[in-house]
């Protein structure tokens, strides 16, 4: 059969590199073919999710940043300073976490989705028109976030005016000054040329970008056990590949940005400067619990346990 797989980035960006490896493995180990649909070919993230739920797409990569209204618990990825920045610890966490590998699949299943994997895409940095050294600098700044209620609350707590927008409106929004800031991992800031429309990059350490790959559940349940195993194996190979692929990627992307725009200002906030953002995180965590009740509390608790284990090795 031919299976259709849509993702939220270009073919040579992180989600695209993952999808290409998945396709390669599936086609090597079966008679099936995977047709890839990069960002822009089938609409925005919200559109491809609808298509996956409807079974028009067999596979979709949608980041929790857009899944929050469908699966409120997926917003846990926007509790600031929850995830570590150490890439080895992060990879261990995503590989072994009970929350990721056992609890989240049940929640995705309720929405007709077979959660296949979640993986990290790099430390999130803020890019803005004006310098940012603390929450005061975000006052009156319309800051674009993905369409996720908790991410909106985060940026309110950070002192900004959060503006949820689909990806397609971000470059133009910055260019026309409708928004004055956005956040994303460095590779994406470079590949989508966010540095052309902002002048400051700030490392705040508040998050690492997480994405999720899933299949339409009816499609997946209808496959032979052999095909299901082949898919799981292809996902595992693609996971290892994408972790390895990202080694040094943030630094390379930053170098490329500074080469294209030497006057770009890059700031790493000190511990002291981070403190007010870390303080704001507590209220965001409380809001996550208010939004998601017992189910969210269980996931958060399990994630903290899994993270403690992943960071202790
Ligand atoms: O900010 C966004 O909307 C996008 N960021 C990344 C890294 N991937 C896809 C997503 O659409």
Q: Could you walk me through the main structural features you see in this protein, from its secondary elements to its overall organization?
A:
The chain has 313 residues and is an alpha/beta fold. It has one domain (2-312): 3-Layer(aba) Sandwich (D-Maltodextrin-Binding Protein, domain 2). Helix content is 49%, strand content 20%. It contains 12 helices and 9 strands. It has helices spanning 14-29, 45-54, 64-67, 87-96, 98-109, 149-157, 170-175, 186-191, 217-221, 225-245, 249-260, 271-312; strands spanning 2-6, 33-37, 59-61, 113-128, 142-145, 161-164, 181-185, 200-216, 265-268. Helix 6 links the parallel strand 5 and strand 6 (161-164). The longest helix is centred in the C-terminal third of the chain and has 42 residues, at 271-312. The model has no long low-confidence stretch (mean pLDDT 98).
